[in-house]
Structure formats: structure tokens, C-alpha cells
Fold:
Amino acid sequence: MTQDTPWWQRSVGYQIWPRSFQDSNGDGVGDIPGIISRLDHLADLGIGFLWLSPVYASPQQDMGYDISDYRDIAPEYGTLNDMDRLITEAKARGIGIVMDLVVNHSSDKHRWFEAAKADSGAPERDYYVWRDPGPNGEPPSDLRACFGGPAWNWNEEAGQYYLGYFSPFQPDLNWRNPALRAEIYDMMNWWFDRGIAGFRMDVISLIGKDIENEVFEEGPYLHEYLQEMHQKTLKGRDVLTIGESWSVSRETAPLYCAKDRDELDMVFQFNHIKSQWDEVHGKWKPKPFDLVAFKDELFGWQEALADAGWNSLFLSNHDLPRQVSKYGDDGEYRVRSAKALATLTHLMKGTPFIYQGEEIGMTNIRLERIDQFRDLETIGLWHEERERGTDWDTFLAGANENGRDNTRTPVQWDDGPCAGFTDGMPWIEVNSNFPEINVAAERAKSDGVLAHYRKLVALRKKMDVVALGRFEAVAAEHDKVAAYLRHHDGERLAVVANMTGDEVRFDPPEALHIEGEGLLSTVEPRYRIDGPMTLAPWESFAIHARG
Structure:
């Protein structure tokens, strides 16, 4: 394996949603000691770093994405000593801790906001975005918040409106203020000094917003601030930075992560995810899976960042549904489709991310009543949709397919009470299929989903063609099969996946013909591609050849 590449280009990341990973004290909420108790599972999987969703002090209005103290830990998750122990224990297993950086907004309970609303002359007043009411007391504009309701919120104590682009509980920080930026950079360095391996930056594309012209995504100040952040916190450190953006395009991505930009290492982009959303109703109105559109985005991004940056590879996270339920078949072909989806993503060029439970093929949960949901977004949007006349069954279908609670149910560790997640009452329901789908059961299977993930993680570590190889799309217009090649120093890797539950006749183009070592397969070993073939339902395989 080439040694002069950044460590994160040869690693696989694993995202933990702390509230649902492992509870250590029986209160029904996952915590940091619980994570520590499961580190050996992650080490056995072979991951290189752990992306930890927020564990900071928070009122938990948005499950920790509303932070009240960036330098403390929420009591339900543990203490700073627990966090230091997690960093140390993970490092002993070769795993770095990448924390979530949530600095587009804070909690309305943060001391900055408390000071800001209490005193118009306080320095913290300008840490947030305030506007006077209109002539009749109306908000500055009719801008809507992402989680429902107006984005401008009246504060009686301050006598002004403040911007909460996501919710009233999450007032936007004013990045135009250099003192605010200095506070954030100091906090980042404080965490780096504690030994973390990097940051995943939540909705970072919003920090450069132009409020007056209501330009929020990728605003005019974004890259100026990211370059300043690099100078103040990242320069000279061997750390990983991933910026989340729901607006980034193939054209703008290099501005974030090209080597000469001195900004970030990679971005999380969601164009492949959004390609499966309804054009009008977004994710809330399910539509049939379109493989050609899906591949156009996945493969197009491979080409766009081939020489100008680095890709993040994922299908699931805390904001998205379970991938085997969304893109695969969580019934008869759950195991095969889970493996096919993993093969498709992990063998492309970039850094793969595994979301907790994905490695055992966990599925979406089926909820029936609004009181079963916990997600701020789902609950807020239901109230809006109900006012528009949307019926419950229609909304429920979208929430059960694409709602964020799907990936926030507890990890299924074994077939015992509450799936081994807690000895108490879990904060959200455990998926009822845990007796069949759990880590203990997967560990006993030599050809299960977990074993397949282990192979994929190991291949990236040991094979240059997987970690660094050039990507070449093949049969891009095929509506049932995904296929591509990787090339590196005379090596070739061919990847083929039938993305349907039907038997498919596939006539591969000559460019895909190959004979060599069968690295992995979900149905039967394959060592060559030399002409038309019949692919079994959800069959996937990879063949490696030298010379």
C-alpha cells in the first residue's frame, strides 16, 4: 500500500448516533461509556475513525444539534472524563474520533444567546442575527424554517426578531462577527488539543450566508471563512475535515476540497440521495427507485472529483433512511441487497462511511402514530402538512420511508431484551425484527452481512487499486445493473451488481471483460467476465486482475 497518502484515504469511517448506540446505565439513552464498551466491535470491523454525532451539552430539542456548551458533555451521555477516555481507548485500537462541529447555529440556551437577548450592548448580541419588526410588528420576511414554521422568531426580552433557519431553538450564529469566529476557532483548537482526529462540519455551507439578500447556501463569504478556519485551526495538523452541504454541486465541490484551496478534505454531498426524491414534495413523497439517475450522480461525482478533490461514499446517516430499506430489499433479499449496496459504494474511489447498524443490515422501522416519532423535523412538518390538508396515511408513508427516526432506533446487539441496547426503557422503540437481525447472530455467520463488510474494509486497507485507483463508469444507462472499473499501476478491478430482485441478462461491454481473482461475491464465485451473463437477484461481485 502506498504510504504517502493521507491516512483517511485508506480508512473507513463509522458514524455513531450516541443516543442509540449503547446504554451503559439503564436510563434508556445511549452514552459514551456504552460506546467504549463496544469499541472492540468497531476494531474488529476494521474502521479507521469514528464520526461521533453531537455529545455536547444540549437541551436535545434537535437531538444534540442544538448545542448549549461546546466545551462540555451532555449529562445523559457522560462527562468530559468519559470523553477523554473514549479518545484514549479508541486511539489504542487504531481508531480516531471525529467530532460533529455544529456552528451554523447554537442552542437558544447557550450562554451567548442568553447574554445577547438580555442586553443589546453585550458583545454577544452581535453573535446572532437580529432584525427590528416591520411597521406593523411583522417579521422581517416570510422566510420559512427548515423544520417548519417561520424562520424569524420574536424575542420579547430583546424586542427584536432573531433568525432560526432550522428552528426557534437553534438561533443562527452571525459569522460576519470576527469575535464570534475567534470563539469558534479557539473551541476547535481546544478539542484538537484533547486528541480528536478531526471534525465533521454540520451544514457548513450555510455559514457564509448573505442575510439581506436571503442567500443561505454557499453564500458569498463561505470560502473566505473556511480558509480562515484552516489557517487558525487546521494548518499543520494531521486531521480530517468533512463539510456537509445540501447544495454543493460537481462544479463547486472543488472549491471546498481541492488540494490547493486550504479549506476541507472532503464534502458530504447528497445529490445521489436527492435524485430519488419527488421534485415537488421532496423526500416526503416516495417515488420508485431510478437506478440510472442514481448512477448518474454517484458516477458523475467520481469523475468530477477524480483529480480535483476527494469523495465521501455513503448511502445512510442519521438524517437518512436505512439503505437496505430505501435502495435494496429488506424482505426476501435483505442480505444479498445489503451486500450489493455495500459493494457498490465501498469499491468506488473515496472514503466510505458506515452508519451504525448498517454493517448487519438493519432496516427501517414501521411506526403508526405521531406520538411514536421523536424527530423534530418529522413532527414539525406534520403540523404544517395537516394544515395544508394532507391526510395522515399519505404523510405516514413518506415518514416511514424517508423519516430520520428510521436510522435513530437502537442498535440491535443481540436477541435479548431491548436488543441488548439497554436494561431500561429505550428513548425510542427498538425495531421488532431484532431477534433475527442483530450483531451476535451476524458474528456467527461466515457469509453474513457483517463478514462482507469486514472484507470490504480490509480490501481498502491492503489494495492500492481500491484506495487510490482511477474510476471508470461502465454501462451507465443500464436500468438494472451497476458496473464500473478501477485502474491503478497496471491493476484492474471490475465491480458488477444486479440492483433488482429479478434475474437479469447482462451483456457487458468489452471494456469490462476481465479474468483474475474473485475478491468477493454474493451468490457464486466469479473469476472472469468475457461475454453475456445471467445475474441472479441482487448478485454482486468484484474481480481483480494484474497486468
Observations:
- The first strand starts at residue 13 and ends at 16.
- The two ends are 17 Å apart (CA to CA).
